[in-house]
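URGENT: need a sanity check before tomorrow's submission.

F., can you look over the CRISPR-associated Cmr2 family protein record below? I want to be sure the sequence and structure line up before it goes out.
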Amino acid sequence: MTHDHLWQTKLAARIHDPAEKALVLLRDPAGHEGGTSRALTRLLGFDQLPEHIDPDNDEALSATLFRKGLPRGIYRHVQRADWWAAAADRPQWPMQQVSVHTKTGEQKVVAVAPWAQVRWTQKPVLIHPLTGAQFDLGRLGETDINDLKERSFAHFSGLLKALGAEGDAPQDWRKTLLAYWRFGPDLAETQDNGKLGALWPLLPADTRVPDHSIWDHLDLTSAFAGAFTADPQGEAALLALSIGPVQGFIAAARSTSDLWAGSHLLSRLAWEAMRPVCEALGPDAILFPRLRGIPQVDLWLRDQMGLPPKLFEGCEWMQGGTDANPLFSAALPNRFVAVVPASRAQAIAEEVTQAVRQWLTRQGEEVVRRLLEVAGFDPSATPTPFEQMRAQLAGFPEVHWAAVPFSLIRTRNEDKQTDLDVGGLLSAMAPFFGVAPGQFCGFLDTPAWKVLAQNIEWADGTTFFAPNPGVLYPAVYDLAERVLAAAKAARTFEQQAQQGWRDSLSGEVEWLTTDRAQLALPPGQRTDTLWTRVADRKPAWAKEGEHLGALAAIKRLWPTLFAGEASQAIDREVGRFVVSTHTMALAHQLDQWLERGGHTAPGTAEKLKDAEPVALPRRLTRRHAKNPALDDAKHLPGLLEAAPSDEDKKLSDAEKLLKKTLGTALNQDEAKLETYYAMLMMDGDRMGAILSGDGKTSITYRQSFHPQVQAGFDQHAARQQRIQQYGAQKRPVSPNRHLAISGALNDFSQTVVRHVVEEEHLGRVIYAGGDDVLAMLPVADLLPCMQQLRHAYSGTLPEDESKDWGDLRKDRDKLHCKGGFAWLRGRLMRMMGEHATASTGALIAHHQAPLAAVLRELRAAEKRAKSEGGRDAFSITVIKRSGGALYLTAQWGEPLALLGDLIEFLRDEGTSRRAVYHSLEWLRDLPDPYHAPEMHESLLSYQLARQSRGHASKGAPHIAKRLTKLAAQRGDNGRVWLANFLSVAEFLARETRGKPKSTTQLEKQAA
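Structure tokens as predicted:
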């Protein structure tokens, strides 16, 4: 195999079906393969390569094969890859005998029945692969076929032109493949005239099963074709690989910057592990996660693979000059699944291990060099910390892998890739499923396989497509995951000798030093160490008293290292900023102050000149970008930042100035300053089970069919019980499922999370990668933000469900979610679907609370949401400055809605501030609501009504009824839960938490 032959084959596989297949199928007289695909084959020069098929000299090959225009060796791999990819991603079909008129007379052939042939433009429907929800696009029948083909060809030929290909100049096959993979699904508006831009990335591969896109199919076909070509025997394997450890690496943090650094560095390590596979086989070889559009991958395409920079000019990561740039998002998980040549699986895994460890070692050496320079040491004459760094990084990260070859499945009919022998696969599966050799297990023991495995022809002539090895992807994947789990369990540990005092952050390794004798010094006696010098000269790298080991040092300096790397990548300075906890606490009050004119109190303007500006939430700066008082708003929190907390007089004066200035917005002498802020930590539930195809987020074979096909299938299956059973069987895991999940998580974390937190609320995303989110918010924004994130994760905003998509699409700048899909700024994105759930831990703390303790409590809150809440839940912790804490854990839905309603009730002008206090007093003497719900409801209704008047008083009985019902559901813990619920609501209802009632209408107008 030559180097070019691999990329030629993969490129041929990528264009074997046209992108617009769903729009021209059953409409184009030339057939879907005779349009854009054939034109691109000629444009790329495939018909000029050696071994081109000539039908005059090879009668065994039909004219259909000739129309492909491919050399024999390439076509053989592409055809097989196409068969396998289609079988892996699509259900098998009941076939029927039909009559075909030929020159020699009428013949009976097996073909897809008429009821299963879909003219998709007449009824364009997309199906969510995790829920079965149908997304009806209306009607596309008016779209002109020739216009579609011309736009598609112009798009791909334009990419070729951008690569510099002219006339008969030789192709750079790898660059072309990479450009088509990355930008094929991105149809520029200038080429599209606004007609297909939103739909282009989601066009289905099969109109009968519109639950996966044409790009998913082309990716998988290219992956299989590349593996077949790169293996001497034409065999492929599934490689599952993970790096770690994960939780401990991220959790060791003393600041939000440490948290971001741990998450982002792990994501970067994941990319460095994937890079050798991408360079050897192309990024489409990795099935999970989806790499298309990931900023770090784009950088690699541009800077290492040589794609022209102008192709990336429209990418968001090329625009931002702050750490809001998507390059700063932790976008990749710590594991991947790839299709690789079977004979090279072990070598690839070892190359990955070596590459990721060498990359981290290089970062470690750079960290030591920078630390020494800042501390005033000569790096070339100070070997000790370099030796420590290398020793502590030895064997890190841990890399575990497993490879399962598809050759365990033998095909007795090599030409058709059918008549499967699964004996080898069963033997390999037996030890991992705890069954006797040869006994059916896993996917091979499901009703679906029992139907597909038998060559059955019923009385009415019905049969199925004969299965090929691609159908058994679920069994191969399941085996790979089990072998990987066994490899992790059997890992060996290499013990390292550590001397003296340990690292301040992890407590596991010795800290980096220039003199090993210093390791014996206890904390109080370290006066002139590497770290005391760094703390004195570069406080951002080390706090006073901190002494860090190798990994902790890399994490601490990673923000600096990566900011420099990002600045070089986009050719502009990228500034890292963190919104301080105090600034976040004041965000809503600053927003109101700016909205009402931004007038400063007498004497404030002079003081502001001496205050350093601070970073403000993005929504605030964008909303008031033209307000001349915005500069003052950036300096106001700086008054407090500049006042030392141990000098009461200066702090008191600064607070007084700030109170007077913010009070001008409310026509008050002084405003009461908000001193609390909030953090939330969100995590998807059962993600491992979802990837493995758990029942709750799996749909049946029948649900994946186009509605027209469902109707025909039902009529047909009514006469055949086995077909009926097949249709009702849950679809097993597939490459399409993995690509759909990864794509949804990418869009959620990279696009939706930042929009919700930073554009619809006054928050700040600390990190967002996949299903993990950490954000900081003003207290007033906490509840609506966490609720909207939960809805967006599933793609189901209640206020959008009754609306028509046509109307929602007109609102480009607001997030809309319906039926498992999201719409934002002209993009239609698939989310995780209504059956996928997420849990959130939230914490409200005083801005001066130690951040290490805050983060510890936040992680505990998230764990409570999953354990006590039973997942799909939230847990709120309030840490009071005066001492003590409040805890509230509940499921999403009614509890959160009631919490919001109760807060509004308590904030009503007619409600006494002592309403909750009095309710809690008599609550202590009552039995649990579970045992006396009527008593609770009656007394609670009386007490709330007694402490309110007017409109609020009328709503008290309804609030009491809902509170009692929820508390009664908690069993014997109901009284404690109710007390916490009331206390949390009272805390959140205080005026400084949000917008004063008297200004509500003004705020609505301003928004």
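My own read: The chain is about 45% helix and 10% strand. The longest strand covers residues 94-102. If you see anything odd, call me.
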